[in-house]
Design a protein that fits this description.
Organism: Bacillus safensis
Number of domains: 2
Domain N-acetyltransferase: 130-262
Helix content: 25-40%
InterPro entries: Acyl_CoA_acyltransferase, GNAT_acetyltra_YdfB-like, GNAT_dom
CATH topology of the largest domain: Aminopeptidase
CATH architecture of the largest domain: 3-Layer(aba) Sandwich
Strand order of the largest sheet: 1-2-3-4-5-12-6-11-10-9-8-7
CATH class of the largest domain: Alpha Beta
Number of strands: 12
Radius of gyration: 19 Å
GO molecular function: acyltransferase activity, transferring groups other than amino-acyl groups
Protein name: N-acetyltransferase domain-containing protein
C-alpha cells in the first residue's frame, strides 16, 4: 500500500464516493486536514483499494471487490498487530459487503463486530429552535469542557488531537442548569462540509426534551457553518434512532464495524 501525501488526499474523494457514497465523516476530516491521519492506496495512479487511518485509532477500508481487498489484507493485519502491540485502539469501519468478507477472512477470529445505521440530515425538515425555560444554551468552550462529564478535554484530545483544534474547527452545544452541564451535542468529527454528531444527556434530566433541544441548536449551528449534519448509532440503540428520525435525519445505509478488545 502506498502512503499519499496530504495534498493528494482530497483528489481521492471521488474514487471513494464511487465505492461508498455514504462514507464516514472522519474520512473527509482526515482528507480535509481537520484531524490527523493518513490515506493509503494500492495504486497511486489508479487506486482500487483505499485504507484510511485516523490518529485516534479508527480506520476505514473501501474496495470494489473482495479479491482486490484480499491483496491488501497483509497490510491491514500488520496495522492491527501494531496497534495490539502498542495497546492502541483498532476500530475499522467497513465500506460494503466486500470489506466485510475480507475482514472476516483475515481478522475474523480476533475482532468483534457490530452493525450501525448512518443518517444524514434533511434540510427540508428544518425547524427553528424553541426556548426551554430554566435552562441555558451555550457553545462549547473551555469552561463547558472542564465541567462536562462525558465530553471533557480528554475526549477532544483523543478525537481532535487537542482541545484548541476543536474550539477553532469543531462545533459544540451545551445545555446548562445553572452551572451544571446536563446535555451536550458536539461534532465528534467535522470536515469542511460535514459534521458527525455525538450527543449525551444526564440520566436525571432525561425525558425533559433537552437532547432534542441540544440537537436542534447543533443542527442550526451546523447549517449556519454550511456543514451537513450526520448521525450514526448502533442498530439496537432505539432511543438514538427515534431521536434521529424525530429531528429529520434520513437513513443512508447500515454498515458493519469491526473492533478489537483493549
Amino acid at each position: 500500500m502506498h502512503l499519499l501525501k496530504q495534498q493528494m488526499t482530497p483528489l481521492m474523494k471521488k474514487g471513494i464516493r464511487q465505492i461508498d457514497p455514504a462514507y464516514p465523516v472522519f474520512v473527509d476530516a482526515v482528507m480535509d486536514g481537520m484531524i490527523q491521519g493518513h490515506l493509503y492506496v494500492d495504486d497511486e495512479a489508479h487506486p482500487l483499494v483505499y485504507f484510511l487511518e485516523a490518529s485516534c485509532g479508527i480506520y476505514y477500508v473501501a474496495g470494489r471487490s473482495e479479491a482486490e481487498l484480499l491483496r491488501c489484507s497483509d497490510f491491514i493485519v500488520d496495522v492491527y498487530e501494531r496497534q495490539k502491540r502498542q495497546n492502541g485502539r483498532f476500530t475499522l469501519f467497513s465500506a460494503n459487503p466486500f470489506t466485510d468478507a475480507m475482514m472476516k477472512k483475515c481478522l475474523g477470529s480476533h475482532l468483534n463486530e457490530m452493525e450501525r445505521h448512518a443518517y444524514v440530515y434533511s434540510q427540508a425538515y428544518f425547524h427553528a429552535t424553541q426556548p426551554h425555560p430554566g435552562y441555558r444554551v451555550e457553545r462549547t468552550n473551555e469552561q463547558v469542557m472542564t465541567a462536562s462529564r462525558t465530553f471533557p478535554p480528554s475526549y477532544y484530545e483523543a478525537y481532535w488531537g487537542e482541545t484548541a483544534r476543536f474550539l477553532s474547527k469543531g462545533i459544540g452545544i451545551a445545555i446548562l442548569d445553572r452551572e451544571n452541564v446536563v446535555s451536550e451535542c458536539v461534532s465528534i468529527f467535522s470536515s469542511m462540509d460535514r459534521a458527525e454528531i455525538d450527543i449525551w444527556t444526564d440520566e436525571s434530566y432525561r425525558g425533559k426534551g433537552l437532547a432534542l433541544l441540544a440537537a436542534q441548536h447543533m443542527i442550526s449551528t451546523c447549517l449556519e457553518k454550511k456543514r451537513t449534519p450526520h448521525w450514526d448509532c448502533d442498530i439496537h440503540h432505539l432511543a438514538s434512532i427515534k431521536l434521529a428520525e424525530k429531528l429529520g435525519f434520513q437513513r443512508l445505509k447500515t454498515y458493519r464495524l469491526f473492533y478489537g478488545s483493549r
